[in-house]
Amino acid sequence: MKINGTHYRSLWWDEDQSVLMIIDQRWLPHEFRIQPVATLDEFATAIVEMRVRGAPLIGATAAYGMALAADLDPSDNALKAAWEQLNATRPTAINLRWALNRCMETLIPLPEEDRAKAALKLAHAIADEDVEINRRIGTYGLTLIRDIAAKKPAGEPVRLLTHCNAGWIATVDWGTATSPMYQAHDAGIPIHVWVDETRPRNQGALTAWELGSHGISHSYITDNAGGHLMQHGQVDLVITGTDRTTRQGDVCNKIGTYLKALAAHDNGVPFYVALPSPTIDWTVTDGVAEIPIEDRDSREVSHVQGVLDSGDMGLARVTPEGTACGNPAFDVTPNRLVTGLITERGICDASAEGLAALFPDLIRKA
Ligand code: MRU
Asked: Which residues are marked as site: Transition state stabilizer (predicted)?
């Protein structure tokens, strides 16, 4: 997507320096900082500290991490150690393990001297595939928005609600939940997006930054506002992303997604999830029982981060000192609350049958 007239992906390989370039998302939406990632430790830190974040982007970053590892030492043992180190960075988004396993399956059968080149080629392929998957998700999601727009008086916007940031910076490009929004806007369909702030990390501010950069009308709302807006008929469609979707269509996404799905269900608002196939965990059926939920630092809850009037970034404590805080980072929305899954192969029911019909090849391989 474009920032100040320049097209960026959220990561790219610098051939001259043999390093990965990332946008350090800790500084967004206030500063657009580009940073090189040059060692395996730096790759792991970038994911742990959420300099890069969002399930598809975490997967693509890990693939480049494996490319670096293969360049440094292509032996089986070194690659396995790199797999372990990167896989331990974040536990919930399945794209991480998906990308790491794909690297191992490709590299281990090769002679050691061929592995570095093959690993970089594969990382590029994973990044390019992500862009195409998300573009396609956008074309299918666009049909939903178009159908709603067709039933409204001319010029009246379709009102969408999204949670967290499933935007272009959470992927390599386009985003998942945002791709239909970008494509609807570009097709001249008027839309307005309610953007959940998404405490504690306020990923909604990233979504607001993205949508604003693209000229899309939006309002940033507190996490608790969505139910009220739905009750008052102000939301036509919810689209969120996902960090891991089970073979029966349970959706694990940023904490608070489940409450939005409950409110949508209670108010008859369609609740769709933009789902790239690398985010499906075919080994898991019941998401509530089986998906590990990341528990993050309590300081993300006890404090808020933002720009001070001085222009510096600052942390302010909001709780009494010493208050115990809980910080589960994701939750699971059971499939019965999900109207449909928007994938790169079309839209399906959030069910084992729906996913199996669209992805018979992947289910066989799992
Ligand atoms: O903790 P984060 O910021 O990595 O969580 C991101 C999300 O929950 C996104 O909704 C999800 O990864 C989908 S991104 C296309």
From this structure: 164
